[in-house]
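Form 12-C: Joint structure prediction
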Amino acid sequence: MMAKGFKKKDESETEDWSHSSSKVVAKKDFLIVYNDYRREIKAGDDLSDVPPMFHQNLKTEGIL
Amino acid sequence: MALSDPRVFFGIHSFTPYNRSTGLFYGEVRVLKGSSLALSGELIDLMGGSSKYPWASEDGAITSEISLKVSQFEDFMFELFLGAAPTSNSAETLGNVSTIVDKFGTTTVDAVTGIASVTALAASEADLKFGKYVVKVISSTTVDVFFSSDADIGRGTDGSFQNDALKITSSALTITTGGNTNIPNFGLKLTGGSGVIAMTVGHTATFEVRPINSGSMTVTVGGVANQIFPEFGSIIMAQKRGNQELTEIDAFRCKAVGMPLGFEQSAFAETEVKIKALYDSALDGVFKFRHVKPT
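Section 2 - Result
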């Protein structure tokens, strides 16, 4: 589900993984709960569909 | 000539403290259970020898104390009896959310790397619930929220506790850069700082919420810097009798320290305040008693 206030990927100031040739894979489990958006990430999951606004969070949390 | 009617008093009507300098009234306490002005004196006896009886007796001190039982708690009572003037707030049509402040550690609240602010969620103010909230950092970018009491948890959209630690978030909420993270069902949003969010696990912050209201007051009792117990005058009125008789005590100079605050199961709170009635040298007296039989 698209969370409210998300930027479209091509408008993001954050790195856009959707155009990357290689898959972006989670290193460990993590849960994003942000208003209507909920994404339960398991280690090994492909994260290419995670909205850009969470990319920095995933880096900070060591998911990437 | 027949005997006059005996002078009798019945009931209590009001307690009205006033400012001794200006004479202006603080207000009127009306939900009264009772008052008594105790004027108990002592006689100092001279004993000596084998006499079992005093040789002489002279006047000792008189203790003058007003005992006031009330079931009303006005702002001025906190000022006079607890030494702290309350802050009264007018009606808040959108409720009120206090500024979030760090409690444990210093990384939770930060305009860049933490939570920049907590505010009411627009159009969800009816969900604001009265109480104190704690935000706890669960990971570098996520937090849980805890709520002090379920007394008001059903206001607006029902909230619920998730565990015995009074957590109200079923999953840790993600704080994003500049993003607004809603606290579900509580009419609140946490706004992330402007930079890379990086809080320290275990750190906490707190804030308080008032729901939409017609008025509120807050007072911090016991603060050393602003603690003043002013002297005041007091007018105690007995209940007007059926024959219109009125009785009044005007104690010129009073001082009180302390007012118990108790809540009991299924009962209106009641407190008993002890007030010293002191000698007023300007008026040369302790109190004036007045009684009238209107015609």
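Section 3 - Comments
Chain B has one helix and 18 strands. Chain B has a mean pLDDT of 96.
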